[in-house]
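Lab notes, practical 5.
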Amino acid sequence: MFQFISPNPDSDSKLAYSQGVLTTGQMRTLYVAGQVGVAPDGSVSPSFEGQVRQAWANVLGVLAASNMKVTDLVKVSAFLTSPDNYAAYAAIRGEFLGDHKPASTLLVVSALARPGWMFEVEAIACSQT
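Output from the prediction step:
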């Protein structure tokens, strides 16, 4: 079971994430490695938006392979290589997460592991056993 923690309910309700997520009971925990915009065929979109959509699709694939769904995500960490891409990232994140609000961290970094990669996301998911 999840309990979404909101120490400041009035201001926190406007956020697209939760300040904390408490899990209780017997849980399965999945740690999703950093996912980038590389498609299963090895291709990489030249656009930021394309890379973000593919990275999130890759996260959903790992969740599905573990019999989990997006609402099982309890923590998401995302990495952008340019602060100018924040609005596009936030919109696409909303497409994938909908009303679900896992605890989240967003970082702007100077580079990722390969030239041309503009986005990476890692996650933790939990579900009841």
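Observations recorded by the TA: The radius of gyration is 15 Å. DSSP finds three helices and six strands in the chain.
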